[in-house]
């Protein structure tokens, strides 16, 4: 098709245009940023390796990439203990909202009035500080999804989902209370989904077998998630058929599990399946799914742990669906700094301690979040994300046309982008070579690379990335 041709044509000029852009673009558009990567060693460097050998106290040493110097890290750049400065397009598994050491956050932390919030971590469920309701209003409630006036804070993403599931079960049982006890209820999830690694969440996580190995699970229904063809606009007919097939299966499963005596109390879904390989579905798909949930009396839980916080170009990815009543529960964590979930009034548990743990979040994170939201508004960061997201996806289309043997299925919304690599071994090699050239990226799914920059990632950074990625790909040709 014409589009592909023009992409291919543009692709031939990429090297040139990138070189031009990185020379001509203003040095930096983020005040507290560095002006580019700077590499002294291969990563991990000697100091990282020595520290790694000393670090025998954790079960997770095998997962450690390298050790970091967070004092020296700034803006879009993560600095490691060997003095390597990398453009960070993975941002601590997508959890740094406005870059490292943002001056507004440093200022907030240096304010003596905030010291007691940092030093004393309360058991929020029983002894919250006086300013807690105000801080919630300033932070989480100021970005509450449409139709949701209540929020429950939690510590991490899994703990937010775990408690959101409980809230759905309690709500479901309250609708049809008969005998007390532990009922046979279920949550419907999707193939390729990731909702966390705790026991309940794990029962709805289906991204990689290793997460589930040896751990017992529930007999809960798992529906197919649409396998779409990209770019979406070129395959709308085929994709609509695929989505209709999945929706039909969802309804069949709901009926089947009701007949089995394990009715579906809730449906949980990510707006973009992230860990599972950046799988997208259309706004129509989500609107229909929302209607199916209503029709069958199931709560609808949208897991925005990875998509929430602005990198799709809207604060919540579900805003792209254009609905007044998008969900009954929306969970969050990562870029929101605190975990938790928003919910409708009906999903408020009827008695204290039914949804409860010791900390139930952390007020110091609400303090930081309120400031992060100020920065997002003041610096129009959602518009910036939309702008740099366009530059990023166009650059990926061009590279894909230039390296058809390596790259395929470029896709994204805002800067929440991904691209597939021909196989897992090539992906690993590309990730390591890019890192040694000063660009930090992450994988997802079987063979995708995902892009998860902070919200302060501008056009300028996109072009630095495209130049380096281009060099790395040329080595794999
Ligand atoms: C969509 C989604 N849900 C839940 C989780 C789990 O969050 P956490 O790792 O904070 O427990 C993640 C983590 O990556 C996620 O991407």
TrEMBL record:
Enzyme's top EC category: transferase
Pfam families xrefs: Aminotran_3
Keywords, in A-Z order: Aminotransferase, Neurotransmitter degradation, Pyridoxal phosphate, Transferase
Cofactors that this protein relies on: pyridoxal 5'-phosphate
Keyword Signal: no
Keyword Transmembrane helix: no
The reaction(s) this protein catalyses: 4-aminobutanoate + 2-oxoglutarate = succinate semialdehyde + L-glutamate; (S)-3-amino-2-methylpropanoate + 2-oxoglutarate = 2-methyl-3-oxopropanoate + L-glutamate
Molecular function per GO: (S)-3-amino-2-methylpropionate transaminase activity; 4-aminobutyrate:2-oxoglutarate transaminase activity; pyridoxal phosphate binding
Listed GO CC annotations: mitochondrion
Record EC number: 2.6.1.19, 2.6.1.22
GO BP terms, alphabetized: gamma-aminobutyric acid catabolic process
Alphabetical list of PANTHER family matching this protein: 4-AMINOBUTYRATE AMINOTRANSFERASE, MITOCHONDRIAL, AMINOTRANSFERASE
Oligomeric and partner information: Homodimer; disulfide-linked.
General function of this protein: Catalyzes the conversion of gamma-aminobutyrate and L-beta-aminoisobutyrate to succinate semialdehyde and methylmalonate semialdehyde, respectively. Can also convert delta-aminovalerate and beta-alanine.
Homology family: Belongs to the class-III pyridoxal-phosphate-dependent aminotransferase family.
NCBIfam families per record: GABAtrns_euk
Protein name: 4-aminobutyrate aminotransferase, mitochondrial
Native species: Cyclopterus lumpus (Lumpsucker)
The gene coding this protein: abat
């Amino acid at each position: 098709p014409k589009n592909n041709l023009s992409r291919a044509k543009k692709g031939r000029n990429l090297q040139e245009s990138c070189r031009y852009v990185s020379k001509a673009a203003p040095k930096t558009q983020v005040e507290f940023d560095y002006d580019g990567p700077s590499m002294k060693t291969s990563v991990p460097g000697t100091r990282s390796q020595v520290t790694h050998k000393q670090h025998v106290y954790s079960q997770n040493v095998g997962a450690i990439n390298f050790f970091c110097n967070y004092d020296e890290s700034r803006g879009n750049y993560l600095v490691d203990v060997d003095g390597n400065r990398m453009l960070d397009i993975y941002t601590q598994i997508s959890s740094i909202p406005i870059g490292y050491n943002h001056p507004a956050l440093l200022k907030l932390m240096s304010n003596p009035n905030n010291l007691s919030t940092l030093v004393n971590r309360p058991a929020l469920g029983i002894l919250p500080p006086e300013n807690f309701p105000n801080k919630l209003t300033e932070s989480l409630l100021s970005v509450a999804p449409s139709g949701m006036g209540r929020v429950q804070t939690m510590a991490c993403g899994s703990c937010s989902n775990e408690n959101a599931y409980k809230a759905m079960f309690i709500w479901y049982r309250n609708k049809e209370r008969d005998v007390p006890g532990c009922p046979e209820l279920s949550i419907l999830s999707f193939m390729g989904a990731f909702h966390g690694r705790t026991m309940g969440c794990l029962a709805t996580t289906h991204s990689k077998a290793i997460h589930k190995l040896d751990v017992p699970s529930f007999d809960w229904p798992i529906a197919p998630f649409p396998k779409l063809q990209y770019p979406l606009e070129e395959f709308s007919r085929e994709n609509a058929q695929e989505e209709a097939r999945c929706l039909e299966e969802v309804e069949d499963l709901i009926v089947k599990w009701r007949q089995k005596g394990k009715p579906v109390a809730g449906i949980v879904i990510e707006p973009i399946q992230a860990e599972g390989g950046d799988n997208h579905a259309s706004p129509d798909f989500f609107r229909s799914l929302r209607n199916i949930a209503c029709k069958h009396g199931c709560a609808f839980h949208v897991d925005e742990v990875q998509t929430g916080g602005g990198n799709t170009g809207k604060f919540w990815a579900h805003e792209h669906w254009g609905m007044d009543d998008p969900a009954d529960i929306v969970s969050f964590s990562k870029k929101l700094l605190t975990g938790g979930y928003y919910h409708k009034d009906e999903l408020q548990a009827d008695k204290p301690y039914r949804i409860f743990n010791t900390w139930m979040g952390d007020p110091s994170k609400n303090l930081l979040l309120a400031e992060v939201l100020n920065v997002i508004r003041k610096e129009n960061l959602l518009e910036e994300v939309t702008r740099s997201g366009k530059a990023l996806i166009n650059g990926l289309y061009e590279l894909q046309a230039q390296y058809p043997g390596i790259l395929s299925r470029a896709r994204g919304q805002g800067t929440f982008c991904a691209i597939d690599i021909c196989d897992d071994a090539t992906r690993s090699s590309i990730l390591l070579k890019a890192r040694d050239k000063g660009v930090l990226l992450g994988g997802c799914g079987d063979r995708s690379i995902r892009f998860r920059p902070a919200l302060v990632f501008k056009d300028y950074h996109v072009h630095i990335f495209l130049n380096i990625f281009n060099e790395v790909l040329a080595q794999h040709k």
